[in-house]
Amino acid sequence: MIVYLKAGTQLREHLKPDVDYYTRKVETPEGMTLKQILESIGVNPGFVAFAYTDGKMKNLEYIPNDGEKITLQPPVSGG
């Protein structure tokens, strides 16, 4: 199964995009949660506050579908 993970800012640096500037194509077994997928590619799930796909927010226990494009959002920070 293939999913496309997309991120900006510092999270993008951890994601290491390969499709374009923001997107990484990940081949993974079916049934893995988003958290497990992140761990399998070396991205600490603590860097992701939530994700969204098809206009809906998802948590890290979400199990993506084949070909799905998922945008990752880092925790809010600032001063």
Describe what you observe in this structure:
The chain has helices at residues 9-15, 34-40; strands spanning 2-6, 23-27, 50-53, 56-58, 69-73. Helices cover 18% and strands 28% of the residues. The chain has one domain (7-73): Ubiquitin-like (UB roll) (Roll). The protein starts with a strand and ends in a 6-residue tail after the last strand. The chain has two helices and five strands; from the N terminus they run βαβαβββ. The mean pLDDT is 93. Strand 3 (50-53) and strand 4 form a beta hairpin. It has 79 residues and is an alpha+beta fold. A five-stranded mixed beta sheet has the order 2-1-5-3-4, with helices on one face.
Please outline the major beta sheet: 5 strands, mixed
Number of strands: 5
Number of helices: 2
Which CATH architecture?
Roll
Shape: globular
Report the order of strands and helices: EHEHEEE
Helix and strand composition category: alpha+beta
Topology:
Blueprint: E1 2-6, H1 9-15, E2 23-27, H2 34-40, E3 50-53, E4 56-58, E5 69-73
Parallel strand pairs: 1-5
Antiparallel strand pairs: 1-2, 3-4, 3-5
Descriptive keywords:
single chain; 79 residues; alpha+beta; Ubiquitin-like (UB roll); 2 helices; 18% helix
Brief summary of the model shown:
The protein is of the alpha+beta class. It has 2 helices and 5 strands; from the N terminus they run E-H-E-H-E-E-E.
